[in-house]
Predict the 3D structure of the following.
Amino acid sequence: MTDRDQTFDKVAKLIEPFNKKGVKLGETTSFAGDLEWDSLIVMDFVASVEDEFDILITMNMQAEIETVGQLVDAVERLRNEG
């Protein structure tokens, strides 16, 4: 299992409590469209991701992240920079 696979698994676990509709998660699962998250859920979720990985996701980055795969890539990038 690659580091990215492990990151995906951790992100998927963090999504679980917010995944009220039981959407099957994949690289292209979108937060707004598939999971139907509003801005409050996004804020709570981003905080949990930041805590889990000890990173900071800026508002600009959040605006560009629309899918689970994009989030995993961003987490990997931030972890490697830190």
Notes: Residues 12 and 58 are 20 Å apart (CA to CA). The mean pLDDT is 95. The helical segments are 3-15, 39-53, 59-64, 68-81. The two ends are 22 Å apart (CA to CA).
